[in-house]
Amino acid sequence: MNGPTSPKSPLHLPARVYVAIDPYGASEHAVAVARRVIATSGAVRLVSVAENPLTHVPAGSLVGDALNAARAELSEKAHEAVVAASGVFAQRDVHVETQTIDLSQHGGDVAHALVEDARAWHAELIVLGARQHHGLVRWIEGAVSEPLARLAECPVLVVPENCSDKAGHSLNRLLFAVDGSDQAAQAMRFGLRFATSTTHARAIYVVDCAVRLSDLAPIDILENAFVEEGTRALEAAKSRLAGTVARPGTALIRTDRTRDDVAHAIVREAERWHADLIVMGTHGRRGIVRWMLGTVAGRVAQIARTPVLLVRAPHV
User: Fold this and answer.
1) Which InterPro entries does the record associate with it (predicted)?
2) pLDDT beneath 50: ranges in the chain
3) Residue 74 in contact with residue 127, Cβ under 8 Å?
4) What is the DSSP string of 19-59?
5) Number of independent structural domains in the chain
6) How far is CA 158 from the centre of its chain?
7) What is the Cα–Cα distance from 295 to 290, expressed in whole angstroms?
């Protein structure tokens, strides 16, 4: 056992962590983060999906022996990926399970296959890597992370492929994007499970100052309403953080008037404050217009170079 010990050890780390392993190499940091956030004596399930080769080539191009060879190659690559990932947990006091899902036999797509398997395993947290670019092979990028975060019954931790190496060693600076909703409060409660007596936490509310043709009221009126709502939201967040973390803080952030949005404002603040983790609810509301819906949370996960914890509101 080599996990951290009290008083630096979090008290409520997830005991059942499900890790989606990218057979094409985007999961290195995700596995390191999963190793960091799992509770001592917990269980981790490492799952890789072998895609159906027929989804990548024109129908009829692969037949007979060629199709079987392609299926075998994809399955072997997925198996090798989970075996390699399991070695990362060798020195942790956790139970490790591995699984390869062959879509040629299972059917469906990657996101739904992972969600179904995680649900059956009763996962408390799903961790996956994210590619933030488009290439020949698209696996754990927007095509998987967004629907998985939307469909999963537990929180999803999206770890960018290009995030800092320190992500697997420290989650000491937690940034909470809040909007005053119950869903944002729920996300904060889950995110604080990673906090210790030395954790720094910062809650932010983004006032959207950008002028859009869809605005139904003058921007100054909307901005004033957002400032009032944001002030209330940050006061509530400050109360939740007090007594839980070493250095709680709050900030009211504004977008630029043009060529800006809430997602980019959150990511900029995360980079400026050197956050180790961004925590967001995925079904919040912000009064007059929507804010913390999947479009914003998903966009943050796409562009952030910081791990993003997405906590979905239940039954919405």
Assistant:
1) Rossmann-like_a/b/a_fold (IPR014729), Universal_stress_UspA (IPR006015), UspA (IPR006016)
2) 1-9, 134-141, 213, 284-294, 315-316
3) no
4) EEEPTTS--HHHHHHHHHHSPTT-EEEEEEEE--GGGTS-T
5) 2
6) 3
7) 10
Q: Which domain holds residue 214?
A: 173-311
115-121 long-range contacts (CB < 8 A, ≥24 apart) are 115/148, 115/151, 115/152, 117/18, 117/45, 117/47, 118/18, 118/45, 118/47, 118/152, 118/153, 118/154, 119/152, 119/153, 121/16, 121/18, 121/45
Helix (H) or strand (E) holding 187: helix 182-191
Secondary structure E strands in 183-229? 200-207
Residues 96 and 228 occupy one common structural domain: no
- 140 and 215 fall within a common domain: no
Q: And the tokens for 129?
A: 């890597």
What angle do the packed helices 182-191 and 219-241 form, to 10 degrees?
A: 40
Closest by CA to 266, choosing from 305, 239, 313, is: 305
Same-domain pairing of 156 and 26: yes
Cα 84 to the center of its chain, rounded Å: 22
Decide: residue 151, CB within 10 A, 0-12 exposed, 13-18 middle, 19+ buried. middle
Residue 152 DSSP SS3: coil
Q: 161-203, pLDDT tens digit by residue?
A: 888 766 667 789 999 999 888 889 999 999 999 998 889 999 9
